Amino acid sequence: MPNRAIGFFAVLFLSLVGLSSSVFIVGQTQQAIVLQFGELRRVIQDPGLKFKIPFIQEVNVYEKRVLDFDLPATDITLGDQKRVRVDTYTRYRISDPVQFFKSVKPANEFGTARRLEALVGSTVRNVLGKADLRELLSENRSKIMHQINSEVKALTKGLGLDIIDLRIVRTELPPENRPAVFNRMNADLQRYAKQNRANGDEKAQEIRSTAEKERTTLLAEASRDAQILRGEGDAKAIATITEAMGKDPEFYGFYKSMEVYDTIIGEDTTLILSSDSDLFKYFSHPERALRNSH
């Protein structure tokens, strides 16, 4: 083959290699940064066919989509000294590719997983270390998760990452600790129940004592009022009797005798008395009764 032909093919080959090295494609879900000798030259957010200086510039391409990171199950000691095994997952996005490149080494999925494992793991330990198992299993769980999210977001902002969501997938007791924890929880519940019963008995006794005191007071006041009314009635009765005796003593004697008759004489009553007895003087002298009735 002539030397001219060899040179032509060599130039053509080098041209193709150079062209292929100067062209790259950024996808719809991608973003890229262009580096020249390790220094940032430009950031590419728009998809399409792009160019760079071959052999001098290099391109780092990152995802725009939301990515997932699963933290391996970790044993954590809670605030009440109970140990639990916590499994979490994190959803994040590379929001600032330049900051991501500068802060995460290596600036790839492996480096991101290593940084998130350290940050998420330490934050989950710190927050859950101040909570007890009862809070973690109650409605306070959402507050705890909000605190974890907020702290992790603050820590990862300087890495060029945006934390979309962080959740505890599963919380369970380590198998070797379950019997002891269940026994302790049972003892705590029994103590709470005993304390609540004691408080209830004390409150019931207080209510009964108050009710008995009020009952005694009401009875005493009622008895006092009855005595007062009875005294007032007796006083009025005596005044009425005294007034009646002063106006017509004979009629008063007749009225009292009629009351005695009504009290001692019934359908089966038999009395054997002298005809001149004072009890029957109005029967012996009916003119007195007729006179008194007028």
Tally of alpha and pi helices? 9
CATH top level assignment of the largest domain? Alpha Beta
Listing every helix as H and every strand as E from the N terminus to the C terminus, the arrangement reads HEEEEEEEHHHHEHHHH
Major sheet: arrangement of strands: 3-2-5
Count of distinct structural domains: 3
Could you say what the CATH architecture of the largest domain is?
2-Layer Sandwich
CATH topology of the largest domain: Tetrahydropterin Synthase, Chain A
Radius of gyration: 54 Å
List unreliable stretches of 5+ residues.
Answer: none
Q: For the record, give the distance between the C-alpha atoms at the N and C termini, rounded to a whole number.
A: 174 Å
Helix content: 55-70%
Relevant CATH superfamily of the largest domain: Band 7 domain
Q: How is the main sheet built?
A: 3 strands, antiparallel
Helix/strand/pairing category:
alpha+beta
DSSP strand content:
15-25%
- What best-fitting shape do the alpha-carbon axes yield? rod-shaped
Number of strands: 8
Mean pLDDT score, rounded? 79
